[in-house]
Amino acid sequence: MNLRLDFGVVLERWPLFLDGAWMTLQLAVLATLFGFALGALCAVGRRSGPPWLAKLCGGYVEAIRNTPLLVQIFLVYFGLASLGFSLSAFTVAALALTINVGAYTTEIMRAGFDSIPRGQLEAGECLGLSQRQVYWHVLLLPAMERVYPALTSQFVLLMLASSVTSQISAEELTAVANYIQSDTYRAFESYITVALFYLALSFVMRLGFWGLGLVLFPRRRRLGTPL
Amino acid sequence: MIATQLGATHLQFLLQGALWTVVLSAIALVGGGLLGFLVALCRVSGSRAVRLASGAYVQVVQGTPLLVIMFLVFFGLPPLGLNVSPLAAASASLILYVSAYMGEIWRGCIESVPKPQWEAAECLAMSRTQRMFHVVLPQAVRIATPPTVGFLVQIIKNTSLASVVGFVELARAGQIINNSLFEPFLVYLIIALLYFAMCYPLSRWSRRLERRTGFARRQQVVSP
Prior knowledge:
Chain A is an all-alpha fold. In chain A, 80% of the residues lie in helices and 0% in strands. Chain B has one domain (13-214): MetI-like fold.
């Protein structure tokens, strides 16, 4: 039995790893942007929409949060196919991840809304702000500032979870590792390399979100503490 | 038409898969909980080296997808001379994964026990171990219950990834049935419903616990 590790044959396929990492990053960024928009809309709909919309948003959150991502991906993949849409694996993966992270964002935003004391909203009204101004300046932005850390770690988790899309043959990092290990028979080395790529990616994402937080929330930067 | 295709045998096979999902979740909860408890203790240890080492462990495991950990254990170890069964690979990966997250959740709970409690225990001349086990942990357990139940939902969902190493739990059972019936949408919908039936009560329970403890805490700080 050969016990020696040989990273050489794995590492000489580095362009494949870079392609995979690029695809993972693309998936993560797309799902983060669209998922955040979807989640923010659902959170608003759940709080201030008509009862049927609030129920619908609540049902969506519960349905997604209580089923595995793997099953959701299969449902979207085969569901769309049986409806006659033939989309690329990448599109399906991005769509499924968006739907998934949208539900988590809704729940996190709801927690942010709940953390704003009623008195603040009343104070906003007393200052003569319009309904919409109160919603934007007193509720939405401060809530986002509070839940920003939770949101960003959810998005990093989403990037890691995008590995599951290798199961519908989206060619991201994990799929690349699968391919290389079947090509070189160097399973341990392939997966270790890809794990390091994921570690690096999550580090880069955290760094990016930290910088973005400094730009988006100047109050946080000045005080050095959250609200 | 569907009834003639998807028979009682199929459903029985799925329920059997669901049973294995529960077993795997239990293994992950117990094993990951024990290791996670150790991680939590190390994270608040008095020794800087222990804190750093356990912190690094948490960072590495939390920065790697569970799927990659599964592949690493199942496909990566046999060429190195260690043969693992699908159940062993899935259990080991889940235990690693759960321990990092549980350890971090419980560290937060230990640290959220008010500081004066530590100081009072110190004034009573308790040793560090006594302080931890007689004063802090009993209070931390109460704070930790809702998030732990909530994380149980994550564990159950993540056992679905054991399907990639060929362990026949609920998701894999669904794939097998789908391969013979080719009714993917219907089959995966049933799978999703079965997962939902397992997870939703736990989510509800966690939220109820949270509301109860949160309410108790808010009552204390309410201003006149």
